[in-house]
Specification:
disordered N terminus; two-stranded antiparallel ribbon; globular; mainly alpha; single chain
Length: 316
């Protein structure tokens, strides 16, 4: 009987999805790690980098701290990104399955909601690691505030308010995650559908072993993922800036004021620096990183799904 067979396969399918998501997360984050670090330094206006741009900032990091400093904080990022990406992609597939058809057969609203819910689920589980990683990435030569991952966690817990302090900036992160993750998955799935429907000769190949279902070629995956990343990051970026200011607020007395709450932090950023130089500060580097980040993430994930026989192609 097919019903028991499907139930029996569920844990195996979930494990494969977790593996595919974890690999995708590692590939995408490693690809943009240097841009991630300079983005944090620009967003929080580090004293040594506030007057620099993206490329001059990257050059300054290499000259003052060495090439490996471009990847400062990336180890904890890997610890975070594997469960985060694995959880996000797997949760997305599960939510999409349960929501499938709720808004009509050809509607992509369910994919927006599934993407948003998957992003919130993964962010909630791994947020403390994002906090630790941001603190480490913000350090420059001569800073002796923290000695390592465990030291960051212990000091935040003991000196800044216990377990709750590890979730400082969580609210803007979750609010931003809804349009960010939702639009990422929605835009990618919509563009994927359009490529298969309107331009399959250019963007798709057939999988004969799976009854001829269509799959995107690598170029199309990167293109759809890049556009999805640009759209999603543009909408959610001010909340990302707010989150970073709140995460890093307690590192210096002059920035304590940014740790009081989401709306007050956003208001202070706007009053002090305006929209483009405040709420959208670092947007250039964000575009430079968001396009390859989302593109590599979706591409790696779909390739892994095909390798693990989770994606049998689509008929349109």
């Amino acid at each position: 009987m097919p019903q028991p067979d499907e139930k029996g396969k569920t844990p195996h399918i979930i494990l494969k999805n977790l593996m595919a998501g974890g690999v995708a997360g590692m590939c995408s984050k490693t690809a943009v790690a240097p841009l991630d670090r300079i983005k944090i330094l620009l967003q929080a206006q580090h004293k040594h980098y506030r007057h620099l741009g993206v490329f001059s900032g990257l050059k300054h990091i290499i000259q003052s701290e060495g090439f490996c400093a471009l990847y400062k904080g990336n180890f904890v990022q890997m610890i975070r990104v594997v469960p985060y990406a694995a959880g996000q992609f797997t949760a997305y597939e599960m939510y999409k399955k349960h929501l499938g058809g709720s808004f009509g057969q050809h509607s992509h609203i369910d994919r927006f909601l599934a993407g948003a819910a998957g992003g919130v689920t993964a962010a909630t589980i791994t947020y403390p690691l994002d906090m630790i990683r941001a603190r480490l990435a913000f350090l420059s030569n001569g800073d002796t505030i923290y000695t390592g991952i465990s030291d960051v966690a212990i000091k935040i817990f003991r000196q800044e308010g216990g377990f709750r302090a590890l979730y400082r900036g969580y609210l803007p992160n979750v609010i931003a995650m809804v349009p960010y993750a939702g639009l990422s998955f929605y835009t990618y799935e919509k563009l994927k559908y359009l490529c298969m429907k309107r331009a399959s000769n250019y963007f798709c190949s057939k999988r004969e072993a799976n009854t001829g279902g269509l799959v995107l070629n690598v170029f199309a995956k990167l293109l759809c993922g890049g556009v999805a990343g640009a759209v999603a990051h543009t909408v959610s970026y001010p909340l990302d800036v707010t989150k970073r200011r709140m995460q890093l607020a307690m590192m210096h007395p002059a920035t304590y004021k940014y740790g009081s709450g989401m709306w007050s932090t956003m208001r202070m950023i706007y009053i002090e620096d305006g929209v483009m130089r405040g709420l959208y500060r670092g947007m250039t580097v964000n575009f430079l990183r968001s396009v390859p980040f989302v593109a590599v993430g979706f591409t790696s994930y779909e390739i892994m799904r095909q390798m693990l026989d989770l994606d049998t192609g689509m008929k349109v």
